[in-house]
Design goal:
The complex is a heterodimer of chains A (114) and B (109).
Chain A: E1 4-7, E2 10-13, E3 18-25, E4 31-37, E5 44-50, E6 53-57, E7 64-70, E8 73-79, E9 87-94, E10 104-105, E11 109-113
Chain B: E1 4-5, E2 11-14, E3 19-25, E4 33-38, E5 45-50, E6 54-58, E7 61-66, E8 71-76, E9 85-93, E10 96-99, E11 103-108
Parallel strand pairs in B: 2-11
Antiparallel strand pairs in B: 1-3, 3-8, 4-5, 4-9, 6-7, 7-8, 9-10, 9-11
The chains are: A mainly beta (114), B mainly beta (109).
Chain lengths: 114, 109
């Protein structure tokens, strides 16, 4: 069983919709991440939160808006997405940031944009 | 631009044999190295990490690190059909993880 929980598992939305992806971890980790993964490609980093503060934003379009309400929760708010945004969205957590800590992934949300 | 390179495969290995997966990296300052397994349609699963030169063993898996040559490898002993997956190498560089494109491994019964 994964210790990083993502909801929903699947999401289909139109280009004008607003939706949110949710992620929760109970490992006491202080860093949380959002990744986007397209088929047959490695994960692509979007955002990093360290101690509930946004520390890295990899030039992600503003139609993606992250939020970290507390150290266990991470949200990704979606608005006016494009068909090319269809992908697997992965949340991960690690004890700390810096790249030296192993990251643990949730099961992901499969997002399809109509 | 820091890079991590893996042979995309597919690498086909008979059941029961040793599968050897390799990864090279460009940042000489990298200190942490990770191997993830990803089944089709699933999320990456951490299977090994290594920080020091040499070998690290965990069950059927052995990670090998050679910082002088800038490569890290993953050996899977007694390969099983359930080991068939894509194996992603990730290396820390400048406070982030740099990912290889992954090697697809097929274990043939």
């Amino acid at each position: 069983d994964t210790e990083v929980t993502q909801t929903p598992k699947h999401l289909v939305m139109g280009m004008t919709n607003k939706k949110s992806l949710k992620c929760e971890q109970h490992m006491g980790h202080r860093a949380m991440y959002w990744y986007k993964q397209k088929a047959k490609k490695p994960p692509e980093l979007m955002f990093v939160y360290s101690y509930e503060k946004l520390s890295i934003n990899e030039s992600v379009p503003s139609r993606f808006s992250p939020e970290c309400p507390n150290s266990s929760l991470l949200n990704l708010h979606l608005h006016a997405l494009q068909p090319e945004d269809s992908a697997l969205y992965l949340c991960a957590s690690s004890p700390g940031t810096g790249g030296s800590q192993p990251q643990h992934f949730g099961d992901g949300t499969r997002l399809s944009i109509l | 631009q820091k890079e991590v390179e893996q042979n995309s495969g597919p690498l086909s290995v008979p059941e029961g044999a040793i599968a050897s997966l390799n990864c090279t990296y460009s940042d000489r300052g990298s200190q942490s190295f990770f191997w993830y397994r990803q089944y089709s349609g699933k999320s990456p699963e951490l299977i090994m990490f290594i920080y020091s030169n040499g070998d690290k063993e965990d069950g059927r898996f052995t990670a090998q690190l050679n910082k002088a040559s800038q490569y890290v490898s993953l050996l899977i002993r007694d390969s099983q059909p359930s080991d068939s997956a894509t194996y992603l190498c990730a290396v820390d560089s400048n406070y982030q993880l740099i990912w290889g494109a992954g090697t697809k491994l097929i274990i043939k019964p």
